[in-house]
């Protein structure tokens, strides 16, 4: 359904060119739930925004790569064509619902505007009354109690979790096939977080949706996704099933991420983090971008970039510890 191939993304800044994505490859099949994890600034949100053409061009530019959605290269579409894909084929929900809901308009006004626009794009335009009925149905689907009354309220009258449900309902209004959820639970407390993840899982099953979940939290990804892609400094470094990554990750960065998750059964004085920080995107390391922080770094790592390679069925990684990941001329 979605295939990102060797995507590079650069930002031209006064200090130089920031090479923010350095050949990202990801794929998602119909009905799949893929989590993308990594530290803040690793390029996961930027990747999802590139899919929907939401990046400012300039300063952003895409020097190479392809993004296929159901066989069409989204990067070859005009702004008008991509705006038709947004919402009706691929929808997105974001971290902070208050930023995306207008405080001066009722939920009814905001939802019906979106529903009417999508219905026109889908070729079966709805009138205002039909749009209100659909909005109430959607609020019911995301488990908002008394939706026919609450629809007349304003965003400030909803709790954080309820606002996120409203945004999910709006995202579903165009009947998309793929939902991109960018840190959808980060701004919520833990119990509400669990409810939203349960709701998303329920929607995936009921509506046969595919989900691309962006999160810095492996635990959140594990609750919703079957597969995970670990990103580091603009590269995908490992992809596999969630079980495999949790039980036996192969990439040193994935291993470090896993060690930094607090566990109830293990009493520790302090958590084990990954020493150092993400490198500069303007002058990134020439070879493996994780080399300055990697406990297993070797001579080859500083000069040669490892290639993301399938090392066992359904499990790919980019690390020179596995000779299959070395380019032929290395
Ligand atoms: S390629 Fe080298 S530096 Fe990079 S993760 Fe593997 S061992 Fe570490």
Automatic annotation (TrEMBL):
Gene3D superfamilies: P-loop containing nucleotide triphosphate hydrolases
A Pfam family reported for this protein in Swiss-Prot or TrEMBL: ABC_tran
UniProt superkingdom: Bacteria
GO molecular function: ATP binding; ATP hydrolysis activity
One GO BP annotation of this record: peptide transport
CDD domains (UniProt xref): ABC_NikE_OppD_transporters
Residue intervals of the ABC transporter domain: 2-258
Keyword line: ATP-binding, Cell membrane, Membrane, Nucleotide-binding, Transport
Keyword presence, Cell membrane: yes
Entry-linked SUPFAM superfamilies: P-loop containing nucleoside triphosphate hydrolases (SSF52540)
Keyword Acyltransferase carried by entry: no
InterPro entries associated with the record: AAA+_ATPase, ABC_Ni/Peptide_Import, ABC_transporter-like_ATP-bd, ABC_transporter-like_CS, Oligopep_ABC_C, P-loop_NTPase
Xref: NCBIfam families: oligo_HPY
Similarity section: Belongs to the ABC transporter superfamily.
PANTHER family cross-referenced by the UniProt entry: DIPEPTIDE TRANSPORT ATP-BINDING PROTEIN DPPD, OLIGOPEPTIDE TRANSPORT ATP-BINDING PROTEIN APPD
The name this protein goes by in its record: Peptide ABC transporter ATP-binding protein
Organism whose genome encodes this protein: Dethiosulfatarculus sandiegensis
Gene expressing this chain: dppD
